[in-house]
C-alpha cells in the first residue's frame, strides 16, 4: 500500500490549501476538498482536487469547530479496516487543531498534530511530529481506520496551481452541532501579511539586537538582498518587537528558504527546528561558542552592529 483510499482536506486559512493539496495528492488516491463559502472555489479549484465541497457560510460569530458534524456527515467511516484508509488533512492552526480534536471524538479516530512528514507503505501509516518543545521528533503508527492530521506549515512544498483543472463542485448543508461554540465578540489586532514558509530568502534576528529601533538596520539588509525578516521567539513573544507570524521555531514557522541569514541568534534547538529546513544557513554571532555555528553552512564571529552596516555598504554598490 503506497496511498490511502481517500483524503479529505480542510483549512481555515486559504493560503494553506496549496501545501495541503500537495500532501493530499502524495498520500491519497481520491482527494476531496472542503472550503468555506463559494468565494474560495476559484482559489482552491486549480490546486487539483477531485471533488470540491462548499460549506455553507455561517455568521461572523460562528467558530470553525462547529463544522465537525458537517464534515462527519460527508465522510464515510470505514468499518472493517484495521489500518487507515481515509485521511483527514488540515492545517496546524489553533482552529484547525480544535476541529481535529472534535472530529477525533466523533469519528473515534487517531489525531496527530504538527506533523512534519507522513509515510504510507506496506508496514502501515506513520506520522512524524515535533515533541518536547522541539527537542525531539516522534514517529507514530496510526492504526485507526481514519487518520486525522494537522500539517505543520512548510512541511510540504506547495502544489502549483493549474488554471485548466476542473472538478465536480457540491454544496454541503450545514449540520448544526448539539452544542455550538459561538464567539460573543471580536477584537481586531494587527496582523502581518508575511508568510515566511514561502520566502526564498530570510534574515533572522535574535537576542543580539539591543533595541527595537535597530530593526531598521536589519530591514535595510533584508531589502538589499531581497529577503523577508524573521526572528527568534524572544523577539516576537518576549519583547513583542515583531509580529507573531515572523517567529521561526518549534511552535512558529518552518523555513523552506534557499537562504537563512541569522543575526545574533544563539541557535537553540527550539529555534533550529524552524530554521533547519533552509538550504543554506549563514550565521553571524559574536560568541564563537554559540550553538548556531553547529548548524550553519557558513559562520562569521563578529558583532552584528559592525558586520551588518559593512554588508549593507558592500552589497549596495
Automatic annotation (TrEMBL):
Q: Which Gene3D superfamilies match?
A: HUPs, TPP-binding domain
Query: Which keywords fit this entry according to its UniProt record?
Result: Electron transport, FAD, Flavoprotein, Transport
**Cofactor list:** FAD
Q: Which InterPro entries match?
A: DHS-like_NAD/FAD-binding_dom, ETF_a/b_N, ETF_a/FixB, ETF_asu_C, ETF_asu_C_CS, Rossmann-like_a/b/a_fold
Alphabetical list of PROSITE patterns matching this protein: ETF_ALPHA
Q: Which residues bind FAD?
A: 207, 232-233, 264-271, 285, 303-304
Question: Any idea which GO molecular function terms this record carries?
Answer: electron transfer activity; flavin adenine dinucleotide binding
Q: Which domain of life is it from?
A: Bacteria
**What does the note accompanying the cofactor annotation read?**
Binds 1 FAD per dimer.
Domain Electron transfer flavoprotein alpha/beta-subunit N-terminal residue range list? 5-185
Protein name per Swiss-Prot or TrEMBL: Electron transfer flavoprotein large subunit
Q: Which family does it belong to?
A: Belongs to the ETF alpha-subunit/FixB family.
Q: Which residues form the signal peptide?
A: none
Q: Which GO terms describe its biological process?
A: fatty acid beta-oxidation using acyl-CoA dehydrogenase
Asked if Electron transport is a keyword of the record, the answer is yes
Amino acid at each position: 500500500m503506497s496511498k490511502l483510499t481517500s483524503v479529505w482536506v480542510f483549512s481555515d486559512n486559504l493560503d494553506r490549501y496549496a501545501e495541503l493539496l500537495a500532501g493530499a495528492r502524495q498520500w491519497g488516491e481520491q482527494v476531496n476538498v472542503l472550503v468555506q463559502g463559494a468565494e474560495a472555489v476559484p482559489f482552491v479549484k486549480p490546486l487539483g482536487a477531485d471533488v470540491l465541497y462548499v460549506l455553507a457560510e455561517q455568521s461572523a460569530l460562528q467558530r470553525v469547530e462547529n463544522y465537525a458534524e458537517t464534515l462527519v456527515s460527508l465522510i464515510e467511516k470505514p468499518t472493517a479496516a484495521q489500518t487507515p484508509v481515509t485521511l483527514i488533512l488540515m492545517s496546524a492552526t489553533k482552529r484547525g487543531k480544535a476541529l481535529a480534536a472534535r472530529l477525533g471524538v466523533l469519528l473515534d479516530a487517531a489525531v496527530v498534530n504538527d506533523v512534519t512528514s507522513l509515510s504510507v507503505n506496506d508496514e502501515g501509516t506513520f506520522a512524524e511530529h515535533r515533541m518536547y518543545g522541539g527537542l525531539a521528533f516522534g514517529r507514530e503508527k496510526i492504526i485507526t481506520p481514519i487518520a486525522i492530521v494537522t500539517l505543520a506549515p512548510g512541511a510540504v512544498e506547495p502544489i502549483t496551481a493549474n488554471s485548466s483543472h476542473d472538478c465536480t463542485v457540491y454544496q454541503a448543508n450545514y449540520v448544526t452541532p448539539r452544542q455550538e461554540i459561538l464567539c460573543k465578540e471580536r477584537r481586531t489586532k494587527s496582523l502581518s501579511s508575511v508568510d515566511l514558509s514561502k520566502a526564498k530568502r530570510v534574515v533572522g534576528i535574535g537576542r543580539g539586537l539591543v533595541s527595537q529601533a535597530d530593526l531598521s538596520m536589519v530591514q535595510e539588509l533584508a531589502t538589499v538582498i531581497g529577503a523577508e525578516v524573521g526572528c527568534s521567539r524572544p523577539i516576537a513573544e518576549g519583547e513583542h518587537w515583531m509580529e507573531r507570524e515572523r517567529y521561526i521555531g518549534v511552535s512558529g514557522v518552518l523555513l523552506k528558504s534557499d537562504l537563512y541569514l541569522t543575526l545574533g541568534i544563539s541557535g537553540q534547538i527550539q529555534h533550529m527546528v524552524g530554521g533547519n529546513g533552509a538550504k543554506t544557513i549563514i550565521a553571524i554571532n559574536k560568541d564563537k561558542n554559540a550553538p548556531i555555528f553547529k548548524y550553519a553552512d557558513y559562520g562569521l564571529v563578529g558583532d552584528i552592529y559592525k558586520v551588518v552596516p559593512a554588508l549593507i555598504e558592500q552589497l549596495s554598490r
